[in-house]
Amino acid sequence: MKDDKQYTEQGFWEKITTTAKKAGQEVVEKALQLHYTAESSETPRWVKVTIYGALAYLIAPLDMIPDFLPGGFTDDLGILAGTLSAVIAHITPEVKRRAAEKLEEWFG
Fold first, then answer.
1. What is this structure's pTM?
2. Residue ranges covered by each domain of the chain
């Protein structure tokens, strides 16, 4: 279920894998936690809609601060952090584990 036409799984993985180092571990960690939470069949619809909106902003080619500028991921981090705080009750230990494993794979 992807309610935001801007969000695609392929777009998410392309953005994350091509900009992970530039975006930084904190941005990537939050994005992965949200992504894995949205994948869960136990996650309520309103949470998925909220998450997909935030992830759509992350992968959008244009945003408030272009990603290629210094500090360009600041706005993305703010959106992801705000979304995480809104849906924190739905982020399970399993989601955190999966995100941590992927971070270890990418960042060492």
1. 0.81
2. 9-107
